[in-house]
Structures are given as C-alpha cells and as structure tokens.
Write a structure and sequence with these properties.
UDP-N-acetylmuramoyl-L-alanine:D-glutamate ligase, alpha/beta, globular, about 35% helix
C-alpha cells in the first residue's frame, strides 16, 4: 500500500496555558515546545507511522532552519520527501495555545505552504505511482486539483476539506468535488460546504455530490455515507491531553487503511475505526506529529475489548 500526501507542513510553536486567553489578555504559559505540524505533514506521518503505508509527501518549506528540521523529522519516519520543495518564502509556522482542558487555539502563518501551485515532473510521478492520494486545503486549491488530476488509474483521491472556506465558493466546490473519491469533513466544515444548518440534511446533500463522505464528530465518532448507505463509527473513550492534530491523525490513518478501491461500506468503516483508534491515542499525548501512535499501538487498541 502506498500513499502520496500533498499538503502543508509547519513548525508548531506550542504554549501550555491554564485557559485560552481572551482579546487583549496576557497569560503566563506553564511550558512550551516546538514540533512538526501542518495538516499535510501530520497526515503523512499518520499514514506512515500508524497506517503502516509506504508514504511520500509533497509540499514546500523555506530555506531556513525550520525547513531543514521539518524535512529531517519526516525523513526519520521513513517518508519519501523527494517531492518536498524548498521555496523562497520562510517555512510555515503555527502558533498554538493548549489549555488545561486539552482545547487549543491556532494561528497559522502559511509561508512556503502558499508557494506551490502546480506539480513538477518528479512530483507528478510520485503522485501517479501511489495507490491513494490525499490532500487538504491549507495549500492553494490549484495544487489540490493538480494532485487529483495526476493520480494513476484506479487510485483513490481523498480530500480533507479543512479549512472549508475554499469550498464555500460554488465554482471552486464544483471544480474540486468532481475529482474527489472520499471527502472528509468535521461537523462545522460539513455545514459550511453544504450551505445548510441541519446536519442530516448536509450529510445527504454532500453524499449526493461525492462517492463517499466521512464526517468526523470528535468524541462522538464519525458518520460514513456511501450513496444512500449510512454507518456510525464510535470513538474510543479517552481522557485528552492535547487535541492538536487529532483530526489529521484520523485522516492519514484512514486514507492509508483504505487502500486502492473499489469503495464499499465495510472498507470505509474499517478504515474509520483505525483512524478513530489512532486519534484516540494521539489526544492522550502532547503535540501533533510527536503524538501519532505506531501501527502496533493502533492494532492493540482495535483488538481490545
């Protein structure tokens, strides 16, 4: 099983705080850390580490210490970074506050993540060789479309529509959703893209536009929609420490476990259960990429009573 993830990579700068500060308020942090982040990079680490896939990453970093460190961290997980470009812009940075209830507030400076709008020949070859291609919307939409167009015959294109803002434009949504095999959204992104306020109606609307839909609902679990078929996948109950990157972990592991089509409800549910197990473990640890579990840990949780 091979997967190519096209997306963002950031240096996460995390401050632990008693609570998320309000406007104009200054709080003293109880600790700080730096680690690998960005939706794309988090997902490829999830795919490689917890999903057990041969993984490649396509994105961009700056020619700076953060960029070199981010590249080295991905390489340490055995991820092919030959498609990770070096841009003139500085590497992306995410400024994250995590409170005592494990909630977070995040400000992202995109930097080099906005520099890549198309694939070169080498990157196109990486995408074409993958069984599954995954992307998010923290990079230009043009790059997402290029990745979908470059995938090989029979390969699945999985889009995590986060952030959802680009797909709130009908023109962009029509252009992008036509290329999607599996769309993954959270409950807020679901409503944004569907343009309605009712969750059930939104699921029906989006399920009619894409072959398969996954709606993540945090501690509630996820909803799988395949045409008219529906399934509910429960979450694994845990006490969270840090929810940063939990959704990305789910997406990366889900995509890696899905493999090459055809799509059916059993395969989608099994992949979602693996993603749920991985994200449950991840939220019990601090950080985004540092918190991603191994495939053995995920298997153990899936096998537990």
């Amino acid at each position: 099983m091979s997967i190519a993830v096209v997306g963002s990579v950031n240096m996460d700068v995390v401050a632990r705080v008693p609570r998320i500060p309000g406007p104009g308020e200054t709080l003293l942090a109880t600790g700080s850390s730096r680690g690998g982040g960005g939706k794309g990079a988090n997902q490829v680490v999830g795919a490689a580490r917890a999903g057990g896939a041969d993984a490649a990453f396509i994105g961009a970093v700056g020619d700076d210490p953060d960029g070199r460190q981010l590249r080295a961290w991905l390489e340490a997980d055995g991820i092919d970074v030959s498609g990770l470009a070096t841009a003139a812009e500085p590497s992306g940075v995410a400024l994250i506050s995590v409170d005592d209830d494990a909630e977070n507030a995040i400000v992202v400076v995109a930097g080099a993540n906005g520099a890549l709008t198309s694939l070169n020949d080498a990157q196109r070859g990486i995408v074409a060789a993958a069984d599954t291609v995954a992307a998010q919307l923290e990079v230009p939409v043009e790059l997402v479309e290029a990745a979908a167009d470059a995938r090989g015959d029979g390969a699945l294109f999985v889009l995590n529509a986060a952030p959802s803002e680009p797909l709130t434009s009908p023109d962009v949504a029509e252009r992008v959703l036509d290329k999607v095999d599996v769309l993954i959204v959270n409950e807020h992104e679901l409503l944004d893209i569907a343009g309605v306020a009712d969750q059930s109606e939104a699921v029906d609307l989006l399920a009619a536009r894409v072959p398969a839909l996954v709606v993540t609902l945090g501690a509630v679990g996820s909803i799988i929609a395949l045409g008219p078929e529906r399934a509910q996948v429960p979450a694994f109950p845990v006490t969270p420490v840090d929810t940063t990157g939990a959704g990305d972990t789910f997406c990366g592991v889900f995509a890696a476990h899905l493999g090459r089509g055809p799509l059916d409800l059993d395969a989608l549910v099994a992949a979602a259960r693996a993603g749920a197990a991985a994200s449950a473990i991840a939220v019990t640890r601090p950080g985004a990429q540092p918190a991603v579990p191994t495939a053995a840990e995920v298997a153990a949780l899936l096998a537990s009573p």
